[in-house]
Amino acid sequence: MSLSVKHLLGIKELQPQDIELIFRTADTFKQVLQRQIKKVPALRDTTIANVFFENSTRTRISFELAQKRLSADTINFAASSSSVSKGETLIDTVNNILAMKVDMVVMRHSASGAPWFLANHIDASIINAGDGTNEHPTQALLDAFSIRERLGEVKGKRVAIIGDIMHSRVALSNIYCLNKLGAEVMVAGPPTLIPKHIQDLGVKVEYDVKKALEWADVANVLRIQLERQHKPLFSTLREYALYYGINKSMLDSLNKEMVIMHPGPINRGVEINSDVADSKQSIILDQVENGVAIRMAVIYLLSGKGEIVE
Amino acid sequence: MKTLLDNNQLNITLQRLSHQLVENHLNFNNTAIIGIQPRGILLSDRIATLVKGITGRNDVEYGKVDITFYRDDVHQGGLHLPQDTVIDFSIEGKDVILIDDVLHTGRTIRSAMDALLDFGRPNRIELLVLIDRRFSRELPIQPDYVGRTIDTIITQKVKVNWIEQDGKDEVVLID
């Protein structure tokens, strides 16, 4: 048994047993992270480049921490302060980094599909840290891992993904991941932010957030991505908050325990209110914590050559 | 396949090893037992139970250590899957008895000692093994307590079977 892929480009290409293997490995890394010395020497012979063509706080720090906890050497590269601004191509940039003997590349790019393009041109393993509006595989893995941790298993659970589905790579990766693990998935939000034909991915669609919450065991609330909305898709943020934002009185009226998630960064008072984000039902900070363990597992499993020895 | 220890001999050996431990560590006041995952655990489970019986103490500190992330061959050949490490007590200043079923090259023990040091600075680490394959060491590591010392060649394999997992208590040499 081993991962069926050489790169982690998208959840779409993973098998359910790949996800299980990543979770099982992340369980042991989570133990490591609870020790006094939160570091193991496993990847001391590995060098990893974090190549970010798009801004990121959480994901970049999480990846970097995961690499350091594994004793890998890391180099960080942000497009804004690099030769990309002088017109260098993606392949040239990455090949130059690889010429310095780098074993693995973690890449975020604003163009959907960029990691697949790169995977066809270079030898090193690539981990997609988010490509445009397409996929964000490690986020989906840590989301499902957090659901598994809180509810015991993912299979059979009802997960509503709420908000800006149209511009969200988190939504797409989550749909693939949850479907593969046997959860029921619903997307909810204003019609202008839900792509047409999304039902074909095997999800339910709901335009009334309250109804979606009534149905769900877990609500994964997504950020309104104003930076990707090139034409107005709803009138004002206040109106969005009024009709689609999640607040405490709404949750209280449901009369049930449900799990609230958010991949961050949060627009407090827009898609989610502070009284929900900071409540007991929220596992937002657990998601962040689990992110490091999940990324350690992915990096560890992709760093191996050949089969896994039992 | 040759039987090195049958069920009866194995039990006598386990009794002797446990008594030797108690002889040296008396009431286990400042001593912890730690088994090495995965196969050393089956032996250390037995030893810990026997030691608890002999000392009459049910609170003898007993943990498990996984060496996967401390191996020196992480990127040679296949990747190993990690198992649980369970050390829910402090090993700072303690005498630690490290337990594994077969001592061969010594590399596993080296990794285990590295892993242990991430949990604190023990006063001393001792090594207990059921089978010592002597003359096959690749590192200068020697056991303090040995069930049986045997001479083998590298192509041979020593397998310790346990009722819990293999249906039978015995040690066999496979050519």
List keywords for this structure.
heterodimer; A: 310 residues; alpha/beta; Rossmann fold; 10 strands; globular; B: 175 residues; five-stranded parallel β-sheet; 4 helices; 9 strands
Fraction in beta strands of chain B? 25-35%
* Largest pleated sheet of chain A: 5 strands, parallel
Largest sheet of chain B: 5 strands, parallel
Distance between the ends of chain B: 6 Å
- Please give the oligomerization state of what you see: heterodimer
The overall number of domains of chain A is 2
Sequence-ordered SSE layout with sheet pairings:
The complex is a heterodimer of chains A (310) and B (175).
Chain A: H1 16-33, E1 47-52, H2 58-69, E2 73-78, H3 90-98, E3 104-109, H4 114-119, E4 125-131, H5 137-151, E5 158-162, H6 169-180, E6 184-188, E7 204-206, H7 209-215, E8 218-221, H8 237-244, H9 248-254, E9 259-261, H10 274-277, H11 284-303, E10 308-309
Parallel strand pairs in A: 1-2, 1-3, 3-4, 5-6, 5-8, 6-7, 8-9
Helix pairs in contact in A: 1-11, 2-11, 5-6, 5-11
Chain B: E1 2-5, H1 7-25, E2 31-36, H2 40-55, E3 61-65, E4 79-80, E5 95-103, H3 107-117, E6 124-134, E7 145-151, E8 157-161, H4 163-166, E9 170-174
Helix pairs in contact in B: 1-2
What does this structure look like?
The complex is a heterodimer of chains A (310) and B (175). Chain A has 310 residues and is of the alpha/beta class. Chain A has 2 domains: 11-135 and 289-303, Aspartate/ornithine carbamoyltransferase (Rossmann fold, 3-Layer(aba) Sandwich), CATH 3.40.50.1370; 137-287, Aspartate/ornithine carbamoyltransferase (Rossmann fold), CATH 3.40.50. Chain A has 11 helices and 10 strands. Chain A has helices at residues 16-33, 58-69, 90-98, 114-119, 137-151, 169-180, 209-215, 237-244, 248-254, 274-277, 284-303; strands at 47-52, 73-78, 104-109, 125-131, 158-162, 184-188, 204-206, 218-221, 259-261, 308-309. In chain A, strand 3 (104-109), helix 4 and strand 4 form a beta-alpha-beta unit. The model of chain A has no long low-confidence stretch (mean pLDDT 92). Chain B has 175 residues and is of the alpha/beta class. In chain B, 29% of the residues lie in helices and 31% in strands. Chain B is built from 4 helices and 9 strands, in the order E-H-E-H-E-E-E-H-E-E-E-H-E. Chain B has helices spanning 7-25, 40-55, 107-117, 163-166, and strands spanning 2-5, 31-36, 61-65, 79-80, 95-103, 124-134, 145-151, 157-161, 170-174. The relative contact order of chain B is 0.20. The mean pLDDT of chain B is 94. The chains are: A alpha/beta (310), B alpha/beta (175). Chains A and B meet through helix 1, helix 11 and strand 10 of A and strand 4 of B.
